[in-house]
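ok here's DUF3006 domain-containing protein, seq below lol
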Amino acid sequence: MPDPDVGTATIVYEDADGITEREIENDDIVYFDDHWLVKVGENDDGDDVVRRIPRERVHHVERSIDELEKKVEGAIEQAKEQFGWWS
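and the structure came out like this:
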């Protein structure tokens, strides 16, 4: 079950079996280098297993932005404090 503190995302994409819809935590999805990277599990060593989905195969991504924005703002404030940056 997704963690309500970080919000959720839903990605709809084409894979070998047809159209897949997956609900995940906002922390487990990112867009990078023309691909959506989605955490799909962990291996036996506890490392994340990530699926790279080319942008051309993604129909849409929906995210709960309010929770994501709060998390990003918190991370920015933490970085400012850690590195001595001021607003």
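fwiw The mean pLDDT is 86. kinda neat tbh
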